[in-house]
Write a structure and sequence with these properties.
single chain, 83 residues, mainly alpha, elongated
Length: 83
């Protein structure tokens, strides 16, 4: 059976990976499709997608905080915080 620490670490890695994918998609939308990162920008398909990704990343952040990501990130060998 998996202990709580291992479960939280697995959840952390899954949420962190999803957040990294969302971040890459946000950059792609801005750089390649001209999505306006301003929250009050006029609606178009790219800007709407950017808003949805922003919402998703906020929810991912809530999940990361729930598993105390700061504590896990300290020992995360691939975290950008360690560079």
């Amino acid at each position: 059976m998996v202990d709580d620490t291992a479960r939280d670490r697995a959840i952390y890695h899954a949420l962190k990976a999803a957040d990294e994918v969302a971040a890459a998609l946000q950059v792609h939308l801005v750089e390649e499709h001209g999505a306006d990162p301003d929250r009050a920008a006029a609606q178009n398909p790219s800007t709407n997608a950017l808003k949805l990704l922003r919402q998703a990343r906020e929810r991912l952040g809530e999940g990361l905080r729930a598993v105390e990501a700061d504590n896990i990130a300290e020992s995360d060998q691939i975290s950008l915080r360690n560079r």
